[in-house]
């Protein structure tokens, strides 16, 4: 990543704003600009931010400090968002960031549904940036990401450790749909508790025999969710994006984590991806002949997402390019085209 300081400048602008706006919507700015810089679009970042920043709220202030001994009572309390941001801002300046991550990852991971999975997604982007280069703004971004995740900490209902034989593609295809796909994500996730076959579907994934297998299964999960998006995006062109981007964020974080944490990371990512899939997959996929085809150039696909400007299209393109470069599957690129078409209709 070579943005000649653009990412740092963007982070400094965004760190004057909060992780949420209009009450609960997620600030996607840090995630989108990290992807844009990494894919060679640093020159477009500030113009994109000029338009996006006007929607954002001010950085929330803390009211009651969170302590190393008393953090559990504040976990998942959105009213303590400002306190969590202050806490992790201090953590990443006083301790090595990898030590902070190693300590807090297993504490936060069970709450991977936080902010419609945006807590872990923002953390994954921050870690990706830090693995490339360590500096003050990037450390501050990790602190903001972890603070947001902690404040919105939320478990996936009915979590079950995988114990089956299915690969990620088969397991994702077998996830049942919620009966009332209406209203927001919390309403939809709440339906999972009583959803027939939900726990069995989570259990169906093949467990990881070792850390390397966990990494490989996680990569396969990002591929399965990306390919699943293409014919099913009309279920929710925006929300279904997270079935792919959440496991991608976890996959990108693995190099900064102890190998002993990789299997649990896979299982949490699988639960999150399956939950979003259950909540937003439509009753029937779009017929193949009605779907777009991929252009020849992966770079052009990402450039199209940047020109489109929607933050979800940019984030999906970031994941889709990873999948395409790993597998060569053109459906990964076509998924980005599908996203831009459907988001235009919203």
Automatic annotation (TrEMBL):
Keyword Oxidoreductase among record annotations: yes
Domain of life according to the entry: Bacteria
Pfam family membership, one: Questin_oxidase
Keyword Oxidoreductase carried by entry: yes
Keywords noted in UniProt: Oxidoreductase
InterPro entries: Questin_oxidase-like
Stated name of the protein: Questin oxidase family protein
């Amino acid at each position: 990543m070579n943005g000649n300081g653009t990412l740092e400048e963007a982070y400094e602008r965004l760190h004057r704003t909060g992780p949420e706006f209009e009450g609960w919507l997620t600030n996607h700015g840090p995630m989108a600009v990290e992807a844009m810089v990494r894919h060679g679009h640093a020159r477009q970042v500030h113009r994109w931010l000029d338009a996006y920043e006007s929607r954002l709220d001010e950085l929330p202030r803390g009211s009651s400090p969170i302590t190393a001994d008393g953090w559990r009572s504040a976990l998942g309390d959105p009213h303590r968002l400002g306190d969590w941001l202050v806490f992790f801002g201090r953590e990443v300046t006083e301790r090595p960031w990898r030590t902070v991550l190693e300590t807090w990852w297993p504490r936060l991971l069970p709450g991977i549904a936080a902010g419609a999975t945006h807590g872990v997604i923002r953390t994954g982007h921050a870690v990706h940036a830090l693995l490339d280069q360590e500096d003050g703004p990037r450390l501050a971004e990790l602190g903001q990401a972890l603070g947001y995740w902690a404040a919105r900490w939320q478990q996936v209902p009915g979590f079950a450790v995988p114990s089956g034989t299915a690969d990620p593609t088969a397991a994702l295809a077998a996830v049942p749909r919620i009966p009332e796909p209406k209203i927001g994500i919390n309403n939809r996730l709440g339906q999972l508790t009583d959803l027939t076959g939900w726990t069995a579907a989570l259990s169906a994934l093949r467990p990881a025999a070792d850390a390397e297998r966990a990494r490989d299964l996680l990569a396969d999960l990002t591929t399965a969710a990306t390919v699943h998006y293409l014919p099913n995006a009309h279920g929710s062109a925006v929300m279904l994006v997270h079935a792919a981007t959440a496991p991608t964020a976890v996959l990108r974080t693995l190099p900064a984590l102890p190998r002993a944490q990789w299997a649990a990371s896979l299982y949490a990512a699988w639960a999150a991806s399956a939950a979003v899939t259950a909540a937003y997959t439509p009753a029937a996929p779009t017929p193949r002949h009605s779907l777009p085809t991929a252009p020849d150039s992966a770079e052009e696909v990402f450039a199209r997402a940047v020109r489109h400007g929607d933050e979800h299209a940019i984030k999906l393109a970031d994941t889709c390019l990873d999948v395409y470069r790993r597998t060569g599957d053109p459906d990964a690129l076509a998924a980005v085209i599908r996203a831009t078409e459907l988001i235009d209709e919203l």
